Amino acid sequence: MEPADSVTDTDVAELLKAASGGMNAVAALFLRFSEKRGDAGATKAERLLDQLASFDDEIVQGWPIEALTLGLVNVADELANDEAGDDWGYPRIWHLAGGLLKHLSRKLPERRWKDLVERLFTEGLSLGFISHLLRNEIFSHSFYGNRPDASEGIASRATFDTVRSIMVRR
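-> structure tokens emitted (170 positions)
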């Protein structure tokens, strides 16, 4: 018998099927996967995010990325409810979700990614997670602080400026 948190090809297929049903189906699947915890304490949702962040370019290109990411972003705060924080107090699931977004930012065509980031910040329901992403962008673009590191961000400077305006309005 496989551990409760192991991710199988069937789980990935289920995720893609959920994505074809839209972001709400993806959100429900992530919530269900978050209830399956392995002996080491990780959930199936965490393991899945970790694996998704390392998929190859050609695999990701044909996926319904918008539904997948919006579904995830919409439940990121709920997924973090029972999570212990990292050294800075942020939930591990946020770190993994951010890692996936960073991976996608480097794999998707620039226009598609820009449009998706704007939707994440405009439509995303998990304001805690979205604010965490904004904080990371503020530091990576050296809007605050003196050590810019664009490799830590998910948005170009122009997209970051748009996102800042979106968040001010929200």
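The CA atoms of residues 7 and 48 lie 6 Å apart.
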